[in-house]
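Title: [Solved] Sam-dependent methyltransferase 3D structure

Original question kept below for reference.
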Amino acid sequence: MNIKLSKRLQQIADWVPAGSRLADIGSDHALLPAYLAEQQRIEMAVAGEVNQGPYEAACRQIEGARLGHRVSVRRGDGLAVISPGEVDVISIAGMGGGLIVQILSADPGKLTGVTRLVLQPNVGEAHVRAWLRREGWNLMEEALIEEDGKLYEVLLAERARSKEEAVQHDRRLYAPRELNEQVTLTEEWLVQLGPMLSAAPTPEFMKKWQLEIRKRARILRTMEQAATEEARQRRAMFADSLAQLEAILACMHTRKP
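Solution (posted by the thread starter after getting help):
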């Protein structure tokens, strides 16, 4: 069997080091661990799935590919499918950023021995970056991939060797950047946009945030009938944030080679 991955899953696979012990949480059809096992890239893998249908599909995938000696399909919620120290890489893809954070935070002991996280939130990427910063994980790589008309961010993080290393890495990565005399990429904006993605904006990056600007403009129009002072203040803050985002993207567009 020659397993083919989507562009999104291929990016995740490329960031799983050779010889890893992988836990793929929310594995669905277990395509990622099956591919890595077939390529003999991993020592072993756990394919975790909480829902019965995808769990059964993953079982069929692994059995059909005759990879049961290397990939264990387990049904359970989040990191409940692994034991502390059992794996050294965790991948989580295709969920909201809030849910990814919830899964990683539910049982910190399960992250014992884990040195790398490969995460692909569908939305709420800033929540994931903020969690990585709080918990001492160094964000090492970011990718933005367009596939079937959708845009996906993939984040690679490695556990910092010490608190001091994490602090220094964080300071370098999220140091404010001046785009021009009027526009600065603040720490808050770097968390939202991605410190690496915003440093070298690709056409996919520009497309993602132009779409976001249009979405936020529609939301702003729905807030025009704000009746209370509190609601008017919320609208003013939202409008200011939108204006900042528009200015940031305009600077990036003019700075492109």
